Amino acid sequence: ALRLAYLRSGGHDPAILDQLLHLQLEATVLETGTAGLRRGRRMGTPAVPAEPPGTATPGLDAALLAVELENRRLEEELLALKVRRERRADAGSQAAQRHTEELARLQAEVGMLRCHAEQRRPWLHAPVLPRPIAPPLPP
Questions:
Q1: Terminus of the chain with fewer CB atoms < 10 Å: N or C?
Q2: pLDDT tens-digit profile, the chain (139 residues)
Q3: On the CB side of 99, how many CA atoms lie within 13 Å of its CA?
Q4: Alpha helices, H only, the chain
Q5: Which terms are listed as keywords in the entry (predicted)?
Q6: In 3-state terms, what secondary structure has residue 85?
Q7: SS3 125
Q8: pTM above 0.85?
């Protein structure tokens, strides 16, 4: 939980991550050792762990735990990216919808203004021909 909280808050220092991983491994070893002791006592057998501490493969356990933790971190990062992408898509579609509505409103307003201007100035649409400069020539 500590490592995940550190990663979520933006932590990325390799030394601290290594230290947190080491602490988690120690806690796991202690928990499994304590669980083994409890199980042994309940069953009526001596309180001895299933495997002596030196015979297990600590490198393999550590590597497996590290891979599992990295998978969890990547899953959380992937989920965060998906959430951000959905938020951006929602924001983009909402902005596009607002722009479309504004454009339609402005186009309607321009159309109304054109109509209004045509009704007030009918002389603008009558064709205006220039006056003849000289009298027409005889045939």
A1: C
A2: 777 788 888 887 888 888 888 888 888 888 777 554 444 444 444 444 444 444 456 677 878 888 888 888 888 888 889 888 888 888 888 888 888 899 999 999 998 888 888 777 655 555 566 776 777 788 7
A3: 6
A4: 2-8, 14-42, 58-120
A5: Coiled coil
A6: helix
A7: coil
A8: no
